[in-house]
Amino acid sequence: MGQETKHLEVTLETQVESVNLAEEMCLRLAEAAGFGEDECYRIGMSVREGVINAFHYGNKEKPEKKIHLAIDLTPEKMIIHVTDEGAGFILKDVPDPLAEENLLSTSGRGIFLMRAFMDEFDVVKSQKGGAEIVMSKRLPGADSAQSNGNGSGGHDRAPRRGA
Amino acid sequence: MALHLTPRDSGPITVVDASGRITLGDGSANLRKTIRQLVDEAHVNILLNLADVDYIDSSGIGELVSAYTAVRSKGGELKLLHLTKKVHDLLQITKLFTVFEVFSDEPSAVRSFK
């Protein structure tokens, strides 16, 4: 393959402003990568939710902790990693926000939205023990036959193992 | 874009015209403050006009749910008016359409309050 993978990595402070900053940054990259308006919205929202998760649940809003955002732009897809410095969590333990008893919950929809809006989504334990959200969106026009086997793109909402 | 909220009376109903984004931080906090203030002043029948709100994140959704339960606990109702497509889709995938009453014209919405 002649096209190279582009990699961007930033360390964000654990503060509300980081949420907007991360969203803005990923939106610009997504636009430059050729995603349309709707897909940019979904990517921006997912990054936003990932950073909110790291800010609030992972780092418990502690300013001494950092949020690590990394983006890989391969010829096939945009892969986003959001890593916190918290204790990590098990994805299957996250309550289903669509369950009748959770509909009036005032929190707990971020993971659901990321899963719904991205093609691939998973949470793994980072090297330092925090949670690492890994999610990706197939580039417009990318041929699914060229996939490396980590996912088929499309709109499957089921979580799969990330990068 | 900051969230602006402008309450106005429509008979016994308070219509709150919202514009901007309802997101983590100022947007959610502003909504919470406005609803609390209305509830404290016994304005518990509220129609939230979201015609100029095209972005809500999970924090904003949580704030809408919180406003809904706060108003209901005082015997009132919170209903939504004029959803943009993005907000409509968001409420649909989160199943909150089964919770909120949603209207596309104001007179019908106002009449729907008991």
Offer a few descriptive terms:
heterodimer; A: 163 residues; alpha+beta; Heat Shock Protein 90; five-stranded antiparallel beta sheet; 3 helices; 5 strands; globular; B: 114 residues; alpha/beta; Transcription Regulator spoIIAA; 4 helices; 41% helix
Walk me through what this model shows.
The complex is a heterodimer of chains A (163) and B (114). With 163 residues, chain A is of the alpha+beta class. Chain A has one domain (6-146): Heat Shock Protein 90 (2-Layer Sandwich), CATH 3.30.565. In chain A, 29% of the residues lie in helices and 23% in strands. In chain B, 41% of the residues lie in helices and 32% in strands. Chain B starts with a strand and ends with a helix. Chain B is globular, with a radius of gyration of 13 Å. In chain B, helix 1 runs parallel beside helix 2 (58-73). Chain B has 114 residues and is α/β, with parallel strands linked by helices. Classes of the chains: A alpha+beta (163), B alpha/beta (114). Chain A binds chain B through residues 16, 19-20, 41, 45, 48-49, 52, 97-98, 103-107, 109-110, 112-113, 116, and chain B through 23-25, 57-59, 61-63, 65-66, 68-69, 86, 93-96, 98-99.
Treating each run of at least 4 consecutive H or I residues as one helix, how many helices of chain B? 4
**Which fold name is given in CATH as the topology of chain A?**
Heat Shock Protein 90
How helical, in percent, are the residues of chain A? Answer: 25-40%
Q: Over the alpha carbons, how many angstroms does the gyration radius of chain A reach?
A: 15 Å
- Strand order in the largest sheet of chain A: 1-2-3-5-4
Tally of structural domains of chain A: 1
Helix content of chain B: 40-55%
The major pleated sheet of chain A works out as:
5 strands, antiparallel
Shape type of chain B: globular
Summarize the main sheet of chain B. 5 strands, mixed
Share of residues in strands of chain B: 25-35%
Query: Element order, helices and strands of chain B?
Result: EEHEHEHEH
- If you average the pLDDT of chain B, what whole number results? 96
CATH homologous superfamily identity of chain B: STAS domain
Low-pLDDT parts of chain A are 145-163
The fourth-level CATH homologous superfamily of chain A is Histidine kinase-like ATPase, C-terminal domain
CATH architectural category of chain A: 2-Layer Sandwich
Oligomeric nature of the chains: heterodimer
Give the topology string of chain A: H per helix, E per strand.
Answer: EHHEEHEE
End-to-end span of chain A in angstroms? 19 Å
